[in-house]
User: Fold this.
Amino acid sequence: MLRPDHTVLVLVDVQERLLPVMDKNEALLKNLEVLVKGALALGLPIVWLEQYPKGLGKTVEPLKSLLEAQGLAPIEKMTFSGVPHPEFQKVLEKYDHAHFLVAGIETHVCVYQTVRDLLDEDYDVEVVSDAVSSRVEANTELGLNKMIQLGATLTSTEMCLFELLESAENPQFKTISKLIK
Assistant:
């Protein structure tokens, strides 16, 4: 079960040269923006990954600005999975009983390998299925199916944010409701 006090959002490689070639990229960016704004409103820690930014560009706007405004910086990586990176390992040490929400691109490569490695380290992982994509829909589906087979569960942007709220009495309910509409 998702709880704000032990959930970490992992944002994978939503970069300038990748996003434009993703399947359903406009809906993807909208859901990622809602997810990041919701995570920030709920005070979730965010791990922000960038795959080889020299070649693939920086994280797209408005996500980059939202994250930088919170004093966050990306973890630049060359491995497809973010988990082996020393900075990611520090996050795992700090949040050793965390539940991870994972979103980003590409579903069947960097998202998949990050989820696989988190599961290998015995973390609970939920993939935000409407906030991931690949260049072709078949690879998105393949990546999601393989992650499920390995033990990840699926959620959606709206589903996970309302699960984190738990109640309409939560002080962030109006903020999250406005983001979803």
About this structure: The chain has a mean pLDDT of 97. The longest helix spans residues 25-41. The helical segments are 25-41, 53-56, 63-69, 86-94, 107-120, 137-150, 157-165, 173-180.
